[in-house]
Amino acid sequence: MIFLKTDDEIELLRESNMLIGQTLAELAKVIAPGVTTLQLDKLAYEFIKDHGATPGFLNYNGYPGSICTSVNEQVVHGIPSDKVVLKDGDIISVDCGVYKNGFHGDSAYTFCVGDVSEEIINLLKTTKEALYLGIEQAIPGRRIGDIGFAVQNHCEKFGYSVVREFVGHGVGRSLHESPEVPNYGRKGNGVVLKSGMVIAIEPMIVLGKRNVCIENDGWTARTLDRKPCAHFEHSVAIRNGKADILSSFVEIEKVLGTRAI
Ligand code: MF3
Ligand code: CO
User: Fold this and answer.
1) Whether residue 177 has its Cβ less than 6 Å from ligand 1
2) Is residue 80 assigned to a domain?
3) How many domains does the chain have?
4) Cα(130)–Cα(183) distance, integer angstroms
5) Is residue 2 in some structural domain?
6) 149 ligand 1 Cβ < 6 A
7) CA–CA separation, 177 vs 160, rounded Å?
8) pLDDT along the chain (261 residues), means of 10
């Protein structure tokens, strides 16, 4: 069942999502070689708690972190650890959830650590562009497949591959609601988008082959060929004939300044 949200509910969803943007901006200030992903997790936990909210991922199906930190070949759901020390040239997807006023926010950004190769920066740029092209399709009357097509078409044009095992999703009182939002698809296929739907669009795009596996921790997904993966996510409301992006990268990119990709 797809839950349609009222305007008031969408404002609450925006509040949860805006706090994610602020949290990720705090992390952007400290992401650098030598920092561990557990340090980032602690910072996020404290920041979210200090703002009267709860980390939405913590204890979700037993997930142990407040954020997912996926480095290089890790695709999603990397578990923060004091053993993962960021180094120059790495990329790290930080996926963050905030639960406030009964509603979940969900948004992710992939950061560069120090100097990252041109090849990988281009992967990040294209993935972010693909996210916004997908969002352009999130309007009443379009279909889920239109979003997937827009994302896939853009990324494959550059020779990148789209991960298929993980998809975007509805978001609201639950972190994961219907419908699923794949990052691949055909124009005119799938569920018709309606005013009041809120979906998280989250392309996971890789330099190599699209195949992934799960590490022995039961959570961390990584590419089989160990080539890097980029991941950007926005929560988006469909209403008034347009896509209303509820999360924001503005605060993050203010911190990154000229380092923003
Ligand atoms: N954005 C991620 C997703 O929708 C969040 C995962 S939350 C976790 O899959 F708790 F499962 F890690
Ligand atoms: Co998500």
Assistant:
1) no
2) yes
3) 1
4) 9
5) no
6) no
7) 28
8) 98 98 98 98 98 98 98 98 98 98 98 98 98 98 98 98 98 98 98 98 98 98 98 98 98 97 90
